[in-house]
Amino acid sequence: MGRAFVYVILGGGVAAGYAALEFSNRGVSHGELCIISEESVAPYERPALSKGYLLPEAPARLPAFHTCVGANEERLTPKWYKEHGIELVLGTRVISADVRRKTLLTAAGETISYKILIVATGARALKLEEFGVNGSDAENVCYLRDLTDANRLVDVMHSCSGGNAVVIGGGYIGMECAASLVINKINVTMVFPEAQCMPRLFTPKIASFYEDYYKSKGVEFVKGTALSSFDMDADGKVVAVNLRDGKRLLVDMVVVGIGIRPNTSLFEGQLTLEKGGIKVNEKMQSSNSSVYAVGDVAAFPVKLFGETRRLEHVDSARKCARHAVAAIMEPEKSGEFDYVPFFYSRIFALSWQFYGDNVGEVVHFGDFSGNTFGAYWVNKGHLVGSFLEGGTKEEYAAIAMVTGLKPAIEDLAELESRGLSYAMAVSRKPPPPSQITNVGDSGPSLVLEKPVYPWHATAGVILAGSIAAFAYWYGRRRRRW
Fold first, then answer.
1. What is the DSSP string of 341-400?
2. Which parts pass through the membrane (predicted)?
């Protein structure tokens, strides 16, 4: 028993939905494409799970988040896939892949063959057991990676209103879930081993702002320690969290957000792996020419940095999925994936965006006692990263553009003094062409003391600006707190 398709997308998250949309836009024929997913629903926007789905006033949760939304606002419902001749193979687990024979074997024993495979398997949540702690199967211990997790978390929250929750982890999931728990009238304590929240991205000064804001909402922080064990009642529910520093916290529920691991097991020994993911080239093509990888599972070359990166964020998933399909459908017209890394989050009434890389010297700017502030990162004399909290649509677009340009910075004190106005000026004023100095891959040279303002940018910079606009609109539209 088996089926054959020209194109197969393996995975059911954001990248899969955007790849399907791009295939449709480029005229894929009916019956040529299928999506295989372990989940029982069509691809959907996973960021909505932590940014809106958990909120008490969230509207009817099904099917609102069971869709993947394209730039043209087209909702990719199961009906949409059917109308466009795209087959959804849902609730189906693939247990083995043979890239040489171009086949996938499902748990039900069906063989599905392909000519081109797009791997969009994403990542799985790391479990406590991988760190020597048992208890993930307790009914009041929750993770958040997919819709099933989200529905379970909502049910547990509803049963714990007014109670106590411990959030294990201080990253994206920890911070966003903690905010949702507070809004659901649950007392929250966050526990993580680092000295600050969001340690992979935030500077200590930025982290301090968000921690103080959370404290004003009633959140407590226990930093510099980790979970040691759980105390259970006779029904198998967690009633207390024991920490390595000896503290014991009484709880009604626990949320665990301790990281993810890319789902590469099907392709180990068959494809080249790097940085935990599947290594791909500038067209998102793996070491096997018939296999492409996109989203969290893909390790791709980032031109801005001149090295391979694996980026765990929805924007990268959306853009690289579309780029991969363009490379498949029109290889002679598709160039390299010139992408400016972009991350964002929304918590309570706050909203921030980050572009580029957080390496080198940090220059903070703005009012950290207010709602609009940010930072630049300057490495080897060039601005390589920008962070902004509380910006406008135009301001987010400006920091996206300036980061993509990688301007030369000669005076950090002057950059600090100008702050956000520097990015705004660069984005607004066209320069005389003679003032632009080409320094190759490091980008145009912009000397701060005598600023010049480039009027043109690479495709990646234009793309980054559009990303900022979309994210700003999406955030305002989805914000409910």
1. -EEEEEETTEEEEEEE---SEEEEEE-TTSS-EEEEEEETTEEEEEEEES--HHHHHHHH
2. 453-475
For the chain, the farthest-separated pair of C-alpha atoms sits apart, in whole angstroms, at 77
Sheet of 273-274, strand order: 273-274, 277-279, 298-302, 307-309
Strand ranges for 197-330 from DSSP E: 220-223, 227-232, 238-243, 248-250, 253-256, 260-262, 273-274, 277-279, 291-293, 298-302, 307-309
Q: Do both 248 and 308 map to the same domain?
A: no
Distance, in Å, from the CA atom of 98 to the CA atom of 118, rounded to the nearest integer, reads 14
Looking at the domain assignment, is residue 334 inside a domain? no
The answer to whether 1 and 109 have CB atoms below 8 angstroms apart is: yes
Amino acid at 312: E
For the chain, how are helix, strand and coil distributed in percent, rounded to 5?
30, 30, 40
Q: Which two tokens stand for residue 461?
A: 């910079």
Residues 355 and 289 in one domain: no
Phi-psi label, residue 152: left if phi above 0, alpha if psi -120 to 50, beta otherwise: alpha
Please state, in angstroms and rounded to a whole number, the distance separating the CA atoms of residues 45 and 145. 11
For residue 271, the one-letter residue type is L
Mean pLDDT for back-to-back runs of 10 residues, the chain (481 residues):
94 93 95 96 86 72 49 71 96 98 97 98 96 95 94 94 96 95 96 97 97 98 97 96 98 97 97 97 97 97 91 93 96 88 93 96 95 96 97 96 95 97 87 36 34 38 44 42 35
Domain boundary among 215, 239, 258: 258
Instruction: Tell me if 168 sits within 8 A of 256, measured CB to CB.
Output: yes
- Looking at the structure of the chain, the number of domains it has is 3
* Short-list 6, 15, 13, 56, CA closest to 280: 15
Q: Is residue 434 one of the residues assigned to a domain?
A: yes
In this structure, are 152 and 250 located in the same domain? yes
Tell me if 219 sits within 8 A of 189, measured CB to CB.
yes
Residue 437 lies in a domain: yes
Q: Which two tokens stand for residue 219?
A: 């959140």
Q: What is the pTM of this model?
A: 0.86
Tokens 């070359």 appear where?
301
- Of 258, 287, 318, which residue constitutes the final position of a domain? 258
63 prior amide bond cis, ω within 30: yes
DSSP 107: T
| Residue 150, domain member (yes or no) | yes
